[in-house]
Amino acid sequence: MRLVLRVLGTWLIGLALVLLVIDGTRSLGANALVFTSLADLWTQIHPPSLEAVKGFFDSRFFADLLDAALATVLQYPAFAIFGVLGIVLALLGRKPHRERFLRQDQI
Description:
This protein has helices spanning 2-30, 38-45, 47-58, 63-75, 78-92. The chain is mostly helical.
């Protein structure tokens, strides 16, 4: 399980870096900061799935809250969303460290 989390986290961090490079080249070309939001990226890749997710959230009990949360997340830059998710997954997949306590005479 840890291996799957680490591999998935590494892939998401790599995707975030690719998206950051794409946004960087667009920013250099436009002479201004240009960030691709997650909504723009999602609509470029597969618009029907975005509508399906919005429809799924509309059918839930807390539909207004979920719609507001989804709208907020979709406005963030895509590289930030994938980067943070990748870092969290990579940290969850790391090996747990054991604390070693020494007695005073062992120091």
